[in-house]
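FAQ

Q: What does a record look like?
A: Structure on top, sequence underneath. For example:
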């Protein structure tokens, strides 16, 4: 366990997970913890990888290559049928040896600590060598089944050898058999991959293509678990302390969660390898490092959403091996021709803001430090920027969401409501808790309605929706009697009003008050502008008129930023051109605000949208400014915003980074 006092001194990274961060009240004052959370929540430019070493090796055979977790050792099979191990710190060969029969096909693995090399020769038997000397340590030939996978435990003290029908041996590298399951558990050969994720903790993924699932089974001293994942690509699996990751294609799943299931996520590109670091604490999984054919991504292993960063963008090449070495923050690259490049993260602060904040807040909530929650709420009450890359949140509303959904023990939604009601009674002056209760009522109402078209919603679902919306309103209504209230109260009010079909005469006085008290709190005006769209009873142009009214009240670049914030949400109901030509938004004011927003905060999401807008309207000057910031911050594209069209992204960046627009565009503007 680490205290936050240590973390605040270290400053680089912070020990996290669902439980390992401990806050000691006798060491950390409320204000100190608030300061730490606030600092960690601020966005920072993405880290860069520097090339620290380049050298050449013999040519590689296919994709037979592996590295240690610290990126100091490498093994690969050469095209001349020899195996070689390398010291990546010294760019030197350690040993060279051959497998029995000069075999080149099988499964090649290096232990996590770099001490051992194992090879499933022709998938029939396993040879183990010492990496430093190439000495053959042991040959495992006891099994009479075809080998599907081999690997090492987290501490490198054990090996596993698994069969294509689910057989498994657990052994020491020196030859001792610790456990043997020789009987098949499958009735036919399948792709089976195994990993270790702690002492006596093993996870297996089985490809069942005929059933269109990837079956996952995990075993721990506390019991077993099972999950069926959708089959779209052949699966792989990797383990870390207390956690494992199944990855295939551009998707990955983290497990096991507290609920005993797995959580799925989509990454930017096709995954080729993944590893889990334990940089800060050997007993705590920290970041998931992902290698793709076009770079490397790093995300928080417990809370991956909204935290992905491509940190080593590189030209697409499926033949170049790119393996992460997370415990030294390295990426090791090797081309088939033998060129080795060691990329190392710069030593500036490295964090995913939402991941760090989410993790710390979980610890604060687990220890029921409601004084800290209240203090953070006061600090963030008027903060305009979100922590995640999201158009509809601020740091304050994200804090409210964390409290609304926090569970220190299993509770269904109704029990969670009762838990929050009790907290409101115990802490009547804590606005975050009261808004969390209102938020939970709201989410239960919208969940009852579902996402179907209105005519498909059952009458009882509408009744449930109305019941919970009314409860949400009754929860926040007393707050409106005060003079100084969190701006998030207004944003909650607006969405309640939308679902309850408030007339303008009832809603507008609250909006007039919000303009005076919280004009720059963009979530209010985004929600209000949505309510004024034709689909919710407004007229074409009403949304723009509201945005312009608030922006004029603010004035200057801050007004333009608010205007752009509203516009970049409303555009999802149109297109960029439709936003201007149909909804009536001023493209020049939009562009000024989007550039201002990018300059104010290193927000990858905002940069991507601003670059798209500039490209749509051929505003090269704005695009050049945005792309320059993008490059300085080492940011990259969010694929889904570009519909996964890498050529369009590359062409747009090349156009934006050029000192001058193409002559054809200049001529068009002059005409």
């Amino acid at each position: 366990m680490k205290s936050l006092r240590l973390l605040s001194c270290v400053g680089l990274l912070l020990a996290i997970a669902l439980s390992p961060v401990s806050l000691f009240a006798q060491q950390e004052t409320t204000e100190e913890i608030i300061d730490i959370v606030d600092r960690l929540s601020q966005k920072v430019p993405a880290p860069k990888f520097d090339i620290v070493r380049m050298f050449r090796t013999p040519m590689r055979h296919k994709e037979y290559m592996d590295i240690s977790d610290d990126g100091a050792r490498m093994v690969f099979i050469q095209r001349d049928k020899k195996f070689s191990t390398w010291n990546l710190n010294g760019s030197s060969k350690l040993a060279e040896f051959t497998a029995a029969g000069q075999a080149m096909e099988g499964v090649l693995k290096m232990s996590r600590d770099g001490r051992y090399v194992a090879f499933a020769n022709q998938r029939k038997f396993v040879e183990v060598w010492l990496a430093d000397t190439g000495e053959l340590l042991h040959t495992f030939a006891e099994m009479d089944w075809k080998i599907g996978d081999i690997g090492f435990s987290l501490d490198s003290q054990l090996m596993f050898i698994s069969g294509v029908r689910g057989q498994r041996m657990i052994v020491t590298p020196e030859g001792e058999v610790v456990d043997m399951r020789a009987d098949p558990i499958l009735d036919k050969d399948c792709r089976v991959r195994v990993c270790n994720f702690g002492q006596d903790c093993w996870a297996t993924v089985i490809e069942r293509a005929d059933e269109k699932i990837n079956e996952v089974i995990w075993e721990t001293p506390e019991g077993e678990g099972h999950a069926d994942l959708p089959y779209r690509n052949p699966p792989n699996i990797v383990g870390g302390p207390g956690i494992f990751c199944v990855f295939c294609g551009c998707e990955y799943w983290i497990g096991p969660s507290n609920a005993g299931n797995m959580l799925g996520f989509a990454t930017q590109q096709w995954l080729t390898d993944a590893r889990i670091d334990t940089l800060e604490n050997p007993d705590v999984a920290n970041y998931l490092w992902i290698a793709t054919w076009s770079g490397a991504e790093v995300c928080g292993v417990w809370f991956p959403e909204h935290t992905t960063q491509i940190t080593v963008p590189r030209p697409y090449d499926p033949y170049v091996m790119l393996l992460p070495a997370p415990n030294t923050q390295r990426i090791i690259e090797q081309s088939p021709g033998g060129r080795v490049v060691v990329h190392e993260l710069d030593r500036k602060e490295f964090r995913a803001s939402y991941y760090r904040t989410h993790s710390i807040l979980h610890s604060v909530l687990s220890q029921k430090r409601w004084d800290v929650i209240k203090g953070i709420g006061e600090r963030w009450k008027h903060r305009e920027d979100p922590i995640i890359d999201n158009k509809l949140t601020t740091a304050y509303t994200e804090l409210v969401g964390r409290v609304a959904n926090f569970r220190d023990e299993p509770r269904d939604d109704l029990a969670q409501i009762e838990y929050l009601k009790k907290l409101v009674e115990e802490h009547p002056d804590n606005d975050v808790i009261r808004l969390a209760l209102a938020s939970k009522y709201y989410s239960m109402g919208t969940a009852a309605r579902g996402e179907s078209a209105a005519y498909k919603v059952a009458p009882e679902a509408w009744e449930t929706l109305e019941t919970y919306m009314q409860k949400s309103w009754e929860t926040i209504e007393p707050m409106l009697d005060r003079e100084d209230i969190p701006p998030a109260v207004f944003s909650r009010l607006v969405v309640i009003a939308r679902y309850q079909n408030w007339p303008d005469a009832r809603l507008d006085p609250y909006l007039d008050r919000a303009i005076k008290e919280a004009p720059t709190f963009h979530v209010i005006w985004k929600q209000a502008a949505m309510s004024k769209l034709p689909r919710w009873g407004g007229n074409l142009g009403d949304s723009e008129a509201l945005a312009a009214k608030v922006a004029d009240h603010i004035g200057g670049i801050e007004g333009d930023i608010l205007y752009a914030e509203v516009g970049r949400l409303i555009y999802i109901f149109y297109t960029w051109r439709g936003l201007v030509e149909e909804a009536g938004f001023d493209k020049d004011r939009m562009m000024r605000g989007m550039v201002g927003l990018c300059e104010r905060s290193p927000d990858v999401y905002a940069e991507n949208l601003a670059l798209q807008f500039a490209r749509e309207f051929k505003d090269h000057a704005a695009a050049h400014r945005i792309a320059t910031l993008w490059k300085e911050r080492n940011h990259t594209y969010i694929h889904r915003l570009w519909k996964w069209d890498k050529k369009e992204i590359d062409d747009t960046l090349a156009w934006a980074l050029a000192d001058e627009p193409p002559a054809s565009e200049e001529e068009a503007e002059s005409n």
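Q: Is there anything notable about this one?
A: The radius of gyration is 28 Å.
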